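User: Predict the structure for this protein chain, please.
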Amino acid sequence: MQYFVLLIVSIFFTGCMQNIISLDPEARFVRIVTNEPDGCKYLGEVYGYQSGSSLNDSQSMQGAINNAKNEAYKIGGDTLHFLSNNQKTSYISSDRGVVMLDPSNVSTNETSIVGLVYKCN
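Assistant: Here is the predicted structure, written as structure tokens:
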């Protein structure tokens, strides 16, 4: 019986943990540039997004970058030019069924990235 309870508790806490979006092995070659590249073929726009209450700002940003690079690779790109990024931390609490922003309670970090994808090689 003790093992069964331990198993249930382990599964519960594992479900509550949030992971950084992983970088697909093929997408590791997608490079990020700060200026629009010359002589490259434009393929489209991608969005990267990561959120989670157990992630800090840096982890949230890395997950969004990984997500954007994965999406760039999927459409055939090897170069990603970021147009914008947005990072915010929301503090959420619930009091008698009313959800409100409250800096004294649980925080949720969210990062979103918009980028242009190019094929340069």
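The domain at 2-119 is CATH 3.30.110.70 (Translation Initiation Factor IF3).
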